[in-house]
Design goal:
With about 150 residues, the chain is α+β, with helices and mostly antiparallel strands. The protein has 3 domains: about 5-50; about 60-105, no CATH class; about 110-148, no CATH class. It has helices at about 20-35, 45-50, 65-75, 85-100, 105-110, and strands at about 115-120, 125-135, 140-145. Strands 1-2-3 form a 3-stranded antiparallel sheet. The longest helix has 20 residues, at about 85-100.
């Protein structure tokens, strides 16, 4: 058995030797070839190495309520003395209202169009705006937009 202090090109469980690991790899390749050539109905080793799905790690990237309120207060305090400054303040408020509570990635926001916003009733019967976004892996998701 290879001592754990040396560099090993494969990460093996401690109870498994290199010879056992290589034997399983070779048998798995052989059974896969036989299954592909229709000599076997399936690879019998594939059942023994089916991995259980791990729950996705919950990522929390939210600001504390006090910090989020500070961001909103800073946006509200932006100067609005000219048309240009007023338009800038409105854009900043709209972007932060869209990006932060929705949890959208920048690429998702950039790829969306106004046609992906739609209105429908929620469980309480109130009309709500929803946004359909296309995330990683071309997965679509509809999420409600909150009122300001």
């Amino acid at each position: 058995m290879i001592p754990r202090t040396t560099i090993c090109p494969v990460d093996l469980p401690r109870s498994q030797s290199v010879a056992e690991y290589l034997a399983i790899v070779i048998l798995n390749a052989l059974f896969a070839w036989l299954a592909q050539a229709d000599y076997l109905a399936g690879n019998p080793l594939s059942l023994s190495r089916q991995r259980t799905k791990h729950a996705a790690a919950r990522i929390t990237r939210y600001l504390e309520p006090g910090l989020w309120q500070e961001v909103k207060d800073t946006i509200a305090a932006l100067p609005r003395d000219s048309d240009r400054a007023r338009a800038h303040a409105y854009r900043v408020r709209w972007l932060f209202t869209l990006l932060y509570p929705g949890g959208l990635r920048i690429a998702e926001v950039g790829a969306n169009t106004m046609g992906q916003f739609f209105v429908r009733r929620d469980a309480d019967g109130a009309l709500r705006w929803w946004l359909t976004s296309h995330g990683k892996g071309e997965r679509s998701d509809s999420s409600p937009r909150r009122a300001r």
